[in-house]
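Chain A, query sequence.
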Amino acid sequence: MLERYENEEAWAPERRLQPSGGADAGPDLPPPPVPAGTNPTSIDDDVADDREQAARDVPPSPPVPRLGAPKKGRRLVRPEDEPRPTLTPEQRLLVLDVWQRSGLAASEFSELVGLSTHTLYGWRKRFRDRGPEGLLDRPRGGPRGSRLTEVTKRSILMMKEAHPEWGCQRISDMLVRGPALAASAGAVAKVLKEAGYELEDVPTRPHPEKVHRFERAKPNQLWQTDIFTFVLKRQNRRVYLVVFLDDASRFVVGWGLHATASSALVIEALRSAIASYGPPEEVLSDNGSQYVTWRGKSAFAKELESRGVKHLVSRPRHPQTLGKVERLWGSLWRECLLAAIFTDVGDARLRVSHYFGHYNFQRTHRGIDGLVPADRYFRADSEVKRSLKERVAQNALELARNGTPKKPFYLAGQVGGKGFSVHAEGERVILTRDAGEREEIDLVRPDGVPPEIPMSPEEASSEVEEAEAKPTSSGPELPDPGSSPLDQGLRDLVEGLSVRKEEDDG
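Chain A, predicted structure.
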């Protein structure tokens, strides 16, 4: 940086004493007076020596900066650390021995040997725990690759091959639900990456607005309903599917499949759902003609009003309001309708009912914490989570012992408003009540009676032939069907009365 000076003479070059006539001589100075009786030549020599001595005694002036020179800034830099020599295990053991013999504190001894106190304490702890082996060089970093067991890895790869559309979270939930194996979504992604799977960029359309989510707290507080249509490929016939979905649990409470879309179709499905699961508090629908009319009240609205159910209508051209039903349509199309070929409407109705049974009781859902809709609808989600957690812990121990997990068994639900769960522990079956009480279930019949073994058809036919071949017993004969032992007594009584009457007449 340039320094500014108040005195401009500071910028002037230094004036040195030089012999006269020199190339760098300054302004002429008056010669000193010559004393009497001296030689002028010697005087000139002495003066020249004095000037040279004075020039040597004057300190050198700073270099004059140029006004047009570029400025040089200052910056903070970290000094280059000199690489510290790596000590061998023998040298580390020698350092610990010298430290122990010196009796010095760690802070004092560390300054002498050029090590930190943290390093000294770490070496000492490793030596106390494992002896000289603890002072050996250890590889840095953890083991590479997935740490899951081979059974879990194979299960993940088999699920991905069977269902390529499943994501990592879906596979993680199905592992807990099915073979009771624990693997997070990140662990599943690592296994798939090691197997050669790569991420694929799929073009998506950005949503114009933010999606607002809502969910009712309890089942039967709100049902969502909508109509979906598809074509039967063999008959080239269009059919219409209406569904009623519980908002809190995603449980399909009612549905109907017909060849026409009318209010009667919707009302029939509504009545069937109410007969099976009771009436809801509210029903949410779109502005379809089956639900809403432009003038007056529709038949569907009157049906809800007669049952005391409030009718909610979504905003026009806004399918996000019925997002849960729209998500159901997407799953139904990808997992069932896209590849299925139905013979007629009856076959389609039967196979769609099978899918809804799978959707309600077997298919996990990310929107309800990896449970199935039936778990939350019947309010058994807490019991199911607890039972699944116990199964995973037990299965992990079984996997560590034997290497292959056993087939899981569990049952969870509610009876009379009280939760319960039944699961297997080895060869035992344990019943866990709502309060956490555990009780073993005895599968042996009462009184120690062994179960009856059914006979084969050959044994049954031989037993019948033997019974027919046996002679009848000599006991009293049984009356014919429709007869009674009193009939003969009645006949004798009638004959006796008739005989007495004849005698009286004669």
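Strands lie at 222-232, 237-246, 252-258, 282-285, 310-313, 410-415, 418-425, 428-433, 438-441. The first helix runs from residue 40 to 57.
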